[in-house]
Design brief:
With 302 residues, the chain is mainly β. It has one helix at residues 3-24; strands at 30-35, 39-42, 48-52, 56-61, 67-71, 81-85, 91-96, 101-108, 112-118, 123-127, 133-138, 154-155, 161-165, 170-174, 180-185, 192-195, 201-204, 210-214, 220-225, 237-242, 248-252, 260-265, 271-276, 285-291, 294-295. The longest helix is centred in the N-terminal third of the chain and has 22 residues, at 3-24. The N and C termini lie far apart (59 Å).
Length: 302
């Protein structure tokens, strides 16, 4: 083989390696809504594009461009509450809690909101846009620690409700009449419970620093923890979201400034994206809005 031919093939080989490396190293970006002591929307470049001045526990960036939030206890909402606002902070809907805390809000069909309230009479409710209670039943949980009663409850496609009950270490599925029809014991306090399209249930387990996936028999089929991840980035694994590509994003609510706040892992537990900032407040829960500028399709599994 002549020198010129050898150099030609070497060039092709090197170019192939270069393109492979570029494809492999393609940067992933996400914009997302973050709730917690600071409430904000962060762009894929890491810039804050919107803020809300009150602390929050749960929230959704809606298709209308409004933002729906479960507000934590504060001067404006002494028992917690619900607010839907425009990006200019004009109030579209407001509801004051009546007990200790409001821990969940979820937008539903027919202009309804799903809400859970903690206190001496813990309950799940559906409200209309006038604040009327259209459905209500008690959550069957411990009554000694109101703050640790429930977290991110969600309405299921079958009309039932999935409720993570922290101190009870259980996720329960309730009918609209308040009957328990399914439950799974969790390895630590459950914060997020997500019913996946395949019927499995994904659960973030806070101080256990583990996310587990249960099958319909309440058996753990998959899990990811600090034992699987370099640098042990999980610190209070509260909010969780399953993306359309099958990856799982996990918040580390207890992360300190400069530490990893959000971690995205593949099914085989490879870290493909992280988010870090120097803000003093952690991210309680979040909603990934897009990937590389392309808005996610379908309902967010979070």
């Amino acid at each position: 083989m002549t020198t010129s031919i050898r150099n030609f093939f070497c060039g092709l080989f090197c170019l192939s390696i270069s393109w492979s490396a570029l494809a492999k190293d393609k940067k992933i970006t996400h914009s997302f809504l973050a709730t917690g002591a600071e409430t904000r929307i962060i762009s894929g470049e890491g810039q804050v594009t919107w803020r809300y001045p009150l602390p929050t526990r749960d929230g959704w960036a809606l298709k209308s461009d409004n933002v729906l939030l479960a507000v934590a206890k504060c001067r404006e909402f002494p028992n917690g509450g619900i607010v839907e606002v425009t990006r200019r902070e004009q109030i579209v809907f407001k509801w004051q809690g009546t007990q200790e805390e409001i821990n969940t809000v979820e937008p539903l069909a027919d202009d309804r909101y799903l809400v859970t309230e903690a206190g001496p009479k813990p309950r799940l409710m559906e409200l209309d846009r006038k604040g009327n209670i259209l459905l209500e039943f008690p959550i069957q949980c411990q009554l000694t620690n109101f703050h640790m009663q429930s977290r991110m409850s969600r309405k299921l496609a079958n009309g039932n409700y999935l409720v993570p009950q922290l101190l009870d270490k259980v996720v329960r599925e309730y009918t609209p009449q308040g009957k328990i029809v399914w439950e799974a014991a969790t390895p630590h306090w459950p914060f997020t419970a997500i019913r996946l399209p395949n019927g499995n249930t994904l659960v973030g387990c806070t101080y256990g620093n583990v996310v587990v996936e249960f099958n319909p028999k309440a058996e753990i089929l998959w899990q990811v923890s600090n034992d699987d991840l370099p640098g042990k980035p999980l610190k209070d694994a509260c909010g969780v979201q399953r993306l359309p590509n099958g990856n799982t994003v996990i918040t580390s609510y207890g992360a300190k400034p400069g530490e990893t706040r959000l971690t995205e892992v593949t099914r085989d537990k490879q870290v493909v994206w992280t988010y870090t900032d120097d803000r003093p407040a952690g991210i309680h829960h979040f909603q990934i809005l897009d990937t590389n500028g392309k808005r996610l399709k379908g309902r967010a599994l979070r």
